[in-house]
Amino acid sequence: MSAASPETLALAARGEQLLGDDEDDASILLRRYHKAKERRAVWESHWQECYDFALPLRDAILHQGIPGEKKADRLFDGTAPDAVDQLAASLLSELTPPWAQWFGLTAGEQLSEAERERAAPALERIGAVLQSHFDRSNFAVEMHQCYLDVVTGGTASLLFEEAPPGEASAFRFTAVPLGQVVMEEGPEGRPDVTFRRSELTWAGLASRFPGAHPPEEMVKAAAEDPDLRFGVVEAVVPAGHGYAYAAVLENDDDNAVLASGRFEMTPFINFRWLKAPGEVYGRSPVMKALPDIKTANKVVELVLKNATIAVTGIWQADDDGVLNPANIKLVPGTIIPKAVGSAGLQPLTAPGRFDTSQLVLDDLRSRIRHALMVDRLGQVEAPKMTATEVLERSSQMVRLLGATYGRLQSELLTPLVMRAVHILRRRGEIPDLVVDGRSVDLQYRSPLAQTQAQRDARNMLTWLSALGQLGPEAVATIDPAAAARWLGRTFNVPGALMRPEASKLS
């Protein structure tokens, strides 16, 4: 956590902590981290392969990348990287669209109708305050990186910190590379036990942990080499009604405790695409399509080699003592001498057929796009679509992402909003409210979440249209004001645009 964060500076020794201030406790935490990392080792080669073929520009998993280095030398086919970019962009626009309010706070079912009417404007203002902080922060940029990680590696981690006072937003986000994060499942089956190992310079260490007392040897080494980096392991573990936090310096001689305390809400939001029983880390659509991705990459490599042969050709010549193949250059205007009666230089017929390889490649690329949902979630090619076609496309999207959306809502969206509410409530920017689903409920308003509401509204309008054909008596059963209010709530119409009920005006 950043030392500039007021929440981090406020970490105190109140309540249960993850460890004390002595070296033995720090060694215990590091041993737990290394054991968890050993259990993660079986995933690392799989992750590296997925990133090499589907997201080569992202940070390396097993080794520290060099800024500016070439990372696509093994890549010959760009279908998978393009599909990953499109799927991540679709998730960003469908789940957490930038500059659009993708969530809201509504009055819970425990409140009476009158209380709900009075609370609606205030809750809408609170939701607008929350959204404005998201919009002014770096949320969209870092969230897109997390979507790339979850599509490629199946697991992603978003660090949600409180920004220092004076910044444009109270929120600060960091997409933590998968290689830095080691996870365990907590008591409720969520990946909320988090270890993060990062390397910091002396200046970064002093900025993040201003109250730390590192060993004297480290201070001297940093004075001699300002670019020297030190390993830091941070841990966040569920403890009671909160989360215990500790930061330990990973040093062979002295494992110093840099910071220790508690968080009410975990700052690490870890989420997965798909989880197999008994596994902690998630599985991704790239993992499912990896055999086709590797095969397509190899086919393109072979096609390029075959194309080189087709352009330059393979030649044979008799060893007649006159023709020297080493001195021949196949350029226009070249005169090649040969002995009288010899065959000279003759081309060999290339054994490969481009049309066959192209058929195989087209089939592989189609399966890759299908596995990464590009053919169903990509851009609409038709210039005009009817309302029914748009609704059917949205319904198809819900069917495809239904199970994944449920997991993302539980592991990403809900913790994200709850953490935001906690930070602004701490800072006094919103009232001291509790989003418990009874008094105050959390409502999702992203395009994907609105698809079911649109289907319900369509059913309601179909029913109203059918009643109109049954005659005046059937129409008389409709309460137009109640129907309008129901449609307003379904489409998330602001409460300020709807009049109070007549009974409440008197």
Looking at this protein, list some descriptive labels.
alpha+beta, five-stranded antiparallel beta sheet, three-stranded antiparallel beta sheet, flat
Task: Walk me through what this model shows.
- By secondary structure, the protein is α+β, with helices and mostly antiparallel strands.
- The protein has 15 helices and twelve strands.
- It has helices spanning 6-9, 23-54, 79-95, 113-136, 139-153, 202-208, 216-224, 285-312, 354-371, 374-377, 387-427, 450-470, 472-476, 480-490, 502-505; strands spanning 103-107, 155-162, 171-176, 181-184, 193-201, 229-239, 242-250, 257-263, 268-272, 314-317, 345-348, 440-444.
- Strands 4-5-6-7-8 form a five-stranded antiparallel sheet.
- Helix 8 (285-312) packs antiparallel against helix 9.
- The radius of gyration is 30 Å and the shape is flat.
- The protein starts with 5 loop residues before the first helix and ends with a helix.
At a glance:
This protein has 15 helices and twelve strands. With 506 residues, it is α+β, with helices and mostly antiparallel strands. Residues 11-16 have low confidence and may be disordered.
